[in-house]
Amino acid sequence: MDVLRRRSLLTAGLVAGAGAALSGCSPARPERRAAGFAPDDWDSVRAQFPLDPDLVHLAAFVLAAHPKPVRDAIEAHRAGLDADPEHYVQEHHQAEDEVRQAAAAYLATEPGNVALTDSTTMGLGLLYSGLNLNAGQEILTTEHDFYATTEALRLASERTGATVRRVRLYDDPATANETEIVDRLRAAIGPRTRVVAVTWVHSGTGVRLPIPAIGEAVAEANAGRPPADRALLCVDGVHGFGAVDTDIGDLRCDFLSTGTHKWLFGPRGTGLLWGRQWDALAPIIPTFAGDGSPGATFTPGGYHSFEHRWAVREAFEFHAAIGRDRIAARIAEQATQLKEGLAGIDGVRVVTPASADLSAGIVCCDLSTMDAPTAAARLRAEHRIAASVTPYAELYLRFGPSIVTTPAQIEATIAAVGKLA
Question: Which end of the chain is more exposed for a tag (fewer CB within 10 A), N or C?
Answer without folding.
Answer: N
